[in-house]
Amino acid sequence: MKARGTLRYGMQLVWVLAIVSAVAWAQNPPGSDQPAPVSPAPEAQHQGITQEPKREENRKDENVAEQAADATKKLGETTLSKLTDWENGWLTGPYVGKERNLVSVTSRQRWDIYLQQTLTTPSAYIKRMFVAGFDQWRESPPQWPEGWNGYGERFASREGQFITANSLANLGNAALRYEPRYDQCKCSGFRPRTWHAILRNFRTYDRHEENLHPQWALYGGAFAGGVISTYWKPHPRNALAEGGWAVLGQAGYGSLLNFFTEFAGDINRKLGAHRQARSGR
């Protein structure tokens, strides 16, 4: 219990320091604190030596510092806006907004979606971080240690399991030509939209984007990922049990992610995040 408390407070401290550092960087980027130009020495003035070239150089340095400060501030604001904007797909992954119609994806688009869902967006890692933290709290597997070393092993295990499951799911969806993205409901009201989010975690459209079918590939990949993860987990291990738990995890986490994706615009309005251009999604 003491190790868990230390880990929890340690992670909180890391997040606080990261946020403080980011704010400090945006407000006072390197190069913004330039020394004041030195006035000409009396001896130089007495001797009639001009200081204009030096003053011009100092003004150029100040302009460069101001430009660097503005660029850093804009970068920080853009990054913060993206991280707090649920609709940009950084946290939700790729999806189809309610204002757009579903169009069957090409092979290249399917590959890009796979990369976003698996490797290139924060949402691909947040799930593993969260689940690994839950494993750490449950001390599962108990053979792995507590502390950061144990968390690292659990995170790596979840990473391997998720990549395996998502790769197999995308291969299955490609073979069946099923829709790999979530589509926001064109309905209104909290209950219909929530039901739509849950339903779409278990059913998806075929290549015609009209008929719904069970998510065979998604849950087949989840089960296979759980089974394969037993190869690197310590004994004793039960492949069928691991596969079953992986299926339950997909049912719960998938529904939760769909819920947040469905209400991304509502979350934005609550957070006051700026809307980003969503062309091409």
Looking at this protein, list some descriptive labels:
single chain, 281 residues, mainly alpha, 2 domains, two-stranded parallel sheet, two-stranded antiparallel sheet
Give a summary of the structure in a few sentences:
This protein has 10 helices and 4 strands. It is mainly alpha-helical.
Structure overview:
There is one protein chain. The protein has 281 residues and is mainly alpha-helical. It folds into 2 domains: 2-83, no CATH class; 104-271, no CATH class. It is 64% helix and 4% strand. It has 10 helices and 4 strands, in the order H-H-H-E-H-H-H-E-H-E-E-H-H-H. The chain has helices spanning 2-27, 42-46, 52-84, 107-120, 123-138, 147-176, 190-199, 216-228, 239-262, 264-271, and strands at residues 95-96, 182-183, 203-205, 212-214. Strands 1-2 form a two-stranded parallel ribbon. A two-stranded antiparallel ribbon has the order 3-4.
